[in-house]
């Protein structure tokens, strides 16, 4: 019964995503018959092949060619769907202004297509660029003067996947090293796929330089593949894997605890010892020493605030990645991006450095966060 409901949902979603832009771009403008038939065929083929491509690309077989085509299709149809809906407002304005058929629906179709094209081209350029640096000062009242000014670079959601971004990875590392941070953190969703398939893209991260520590935690996407293998591989690259554990750093007599917990999906992964365990991560910690917690999902701040964690660093949301998907993200997470306060705990949520699936970012730019920690 669950399978039937799931299949019905997928069919309904595909019909809606493809049907709305088809009606705006092909059906309503009353194009010549040949153009209408050709456009209908294009949308029908795309709609029928899309679920197959996504299953082949992101299912157990992980066919990268299928994933690339499916991902581009997903991003394109989402943008077309969004702006097909929004341009119904333009249709109403043209109707009130006295613009008659067939000019009215053809103007709407042209505007929809033009806006979507601009957003997809610019969105791809943003997604594929080395992320700009977002500098933020964070005051931690318990931080000792010796660590005042500590520079923490944060990358997250790199999602190394079907599209080979080895060169992008090398440029990301060069940018991180240019910043000369004291600490570098990767807050999860490192890669989609096995270590064997993605290590070429990930291995440049071994060249990241940070004198006081390089810390990595799992995100939910690691648990779609090989979470423990990725922990082991990042450890082999010299990263400190905070798998429900912590590491103390010191400078000039001041101390700071970096702790990390697994993504919640780890609890159902079947891997022994996986799943968030904040008590284990903070076991034996000194209450006078401030704590920076790496937790992939912002909503994990609910547990962090109970333990009086000073700062949580998260990712996961991508800032919505392709507008207006952020509206759905906010149904599940307390924040999309930036620095917010949750009781005694501050939360910095990064928009992420890479992208998942569609190689587009629309009104949700990527980032490298550079957090400068300040004492009171």
TrEMBL record:
Residue ranges crossing the lipid bilayer per the database entry: 33-56, 77-97, 103-121
Name the UniProt record assigns to this protein: Metallophosphoesterase
Alphabetized Gene3D superfamilies for the sequence: 3.60.21.10
Cross-referenced InterPro entries: Calcineurin-like_PHP, Metallo-depent_PP-like, Metallophosphoesterase_sf
Keyword match Hydrolase: yes
Domain of life according to the entry: Bacteria
Isomerase in keyword set: no
Organism listed in the record: Amycolatopsis rubida
Keywords: Hydrolase, Membrane, Metal-binding, Transmembrane, Transmembrane helix
Domain Calcineurin-like phosphoesterase stretches: 150-319
């Amino acid at each position: 019964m669950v399978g039937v409901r799931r299949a019905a949902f997928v069919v309904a979603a595909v019909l809606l995503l493809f049907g709305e832009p088809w009606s705006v771009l092909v059906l309503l403008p009353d194009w010549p018959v040949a153009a209408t038939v050709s456009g209908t065929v294009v949308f029908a083929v795309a709609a029928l092949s899309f679920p197959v491509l996504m299953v082949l690309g992101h299912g157990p077989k992980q066919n990268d060619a299928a994933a690339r085509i499916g991902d581009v299709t997903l991003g394109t149809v989402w943008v077309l769907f969004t702006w097909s809906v929004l341009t119904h407002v333009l249709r109403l304005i043209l109707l009130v202004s006295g613009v008659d058929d067939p000019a009215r629906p053809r103007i709407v179709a042209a505007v929809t297509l033009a806006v979507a094209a601009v957003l997809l081209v610019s969105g791809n350029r943003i997604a594929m660029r080395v992320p700009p640096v977002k500098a933020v000062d964070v005051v931690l009242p318990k931080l000792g003067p010796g660590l005042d000014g500590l520079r923490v670079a944060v990358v997250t959601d790199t999602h190394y996947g079907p599209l080979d971004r080895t060169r992008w990875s090398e440029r990301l590392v060069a940018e991180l090293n240019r910043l000369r941070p004291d600490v570098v953190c990767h807050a999860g969703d490192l890669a989609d796929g096995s270590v064997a398939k993605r290590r070429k893209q990930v291995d440049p991260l071994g060249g990241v330089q940070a004198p006081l520590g390089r810390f990595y935690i799992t995100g939910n996407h690691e648990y779609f593949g090989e979470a423990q293998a990725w922990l082991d591989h990042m450890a082999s690259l010299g990263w400190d894997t905070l798998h429900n554990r912590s590491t103390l750093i010191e400078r000039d007599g001041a101390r700071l605890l970096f702790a990390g917990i697994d993504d919640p999906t780890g609890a159902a992964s079947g891997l022994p010892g996986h799943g968030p365990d904040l008590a284990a991560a903070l076991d034996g910690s000194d209450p006078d020493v401030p704590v920076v917690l790496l937790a992939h999902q912002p909503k994990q701040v609910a547990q962090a605030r109970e333990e009086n964690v000073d700062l949580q660093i998260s990712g996961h949301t991508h800032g919505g990645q392709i507008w207006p998907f952020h509206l759905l993200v906010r149904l599940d997470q307390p924040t999309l991006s930036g620095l917010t306060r949750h009781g005694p705990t501050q939360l910095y949520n990064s928009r992420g450095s890479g992208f998942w699936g569609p190689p587009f970012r629309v009104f949700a730019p990527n980032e490298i966060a550079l957090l400068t920690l300040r004492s009171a």
